[in-house]
Structure formats: structure tokens, C-alpha cells
Amino acid sequence: MPTRRLMPDVIKNQELSCLPPGASVRDAATLMAEKRIAAVLVTEGRRLKGIVTERDMTARVIAAGLDPGTTPLSAVMTADPDTLEPSASALEALDLMERHHYRHLPIAVGGEVVGMVSIRDLFAVVRTHLEDELRNREAYMFGSGYSAEATLG
Fold first, then answer.
1. CA 14 to mean position of chain CA atoms
2. pLDDT tens by residue, 129-148
3. Among candidates 125, 123, 115, 119, which has minimal Cα distance to 54?
């Protein structure tokens, strides 16, 4: 896992979900529902301006009593969010996300967004890494022809 880079090892061929700062919170909620995602990047062109998540909508819109139809994303987004470059490791992303309690982290180069990694993406990397480690240890301890599934079947 330490050598896995955010791009292309963790995410690749990603379709970004972006809206401009003037779009409404309802626009973001509709996009999230259509795409079945939990965060939208707020951009002007490819320039990252912020991020809006389900948590933001709950705390900054619903709990605050704002109208989602008239509230612009610029009023509730996390402006200038932390980012990592595509060459950053999965471990760096996991560390940053854990320290700051993020579930989504934009990937940017020179202020231009190129992707977004989620905690779910990183969980898949960790799971694959652990499964590989287990297989390698079993092969070392029992020989390369040994498999836990084969003995259970």
C-alpha cells in the first residue's frame, strides 16, 4: 500500500462532479442524488474553489434554516480545501483524511482539480493490501499451493 499513488493506482478514469460557486445547494443535492455521490467540487473552469459535502448541507443549510433553492454553494462550501497531488501516496491521503476527519479529498495540480479520492476508495486499497499480505503469509507458512479456501471447500 505505501507505494500506491492516488492517480492512477487508487483512482483513474474518474468523471468529476463539479458545479460553479453560484449554483444553488439544491443543484448540488440533485447532482449528488443523480450520481449517488456524497460530495461535489465547486469550481470555476478547472480551478478548485471549494467542496460541498452531505455533511455541509446538513450542518450549514438544513440546521441553519437556509433555503436550498436560493442559497449559493459559495455560502456553504468549504473554501480552498486541502488537496493532494496525483503523485501523493494512498497512505498520505489516509493520514490527512484521518487527522482532519475528511471523507473526501480533492486531487489538484497547480490549483486545477484533476480528481477526488474518498475514504471508500482508500478502504478498498487497504483491504486489497491486507488480502495480499494474508495470501503472501499463507504461501510462506504453508507453501505456495496452500489456500484457506481449498481446505474449507
1. 11
2. 667 677 766 666 777 655 55
3. 119
pLDDT tens per residue, range 51-81: 999 999 999 999 999 999 999 999 999 999 9
| Alpha-helical regions (H) of 1-153 | 25-35, 54-56, 73-76, 90-100, 119-142, 148-152
Residue with cell 452531505: 54
Q: CA nearest 44: which of 116, 102, 104, 111?
A: 111
Cα 73 vs. chain centroid, distance in angstroms?
A: 19
User: What is the length of the chain?
Assistant: 153
Q: Which residue, among 77, 69, 35, 36, has the nearest Cα to 53 in the 3D structure? A: 77
Instruction: Provide the whole-model pTM.
Output: 0.80
Assess contact for 94 and 118: CB atoms under 8 A: no
What letter would DSSP give residue 38? S
3-state secondary structure of 61: helix
Long-range Cβ contact pairs of 54-63 (< 8 A, separation 24 or more): 55/103, 57/25, 57/28, 57/29, 61/25
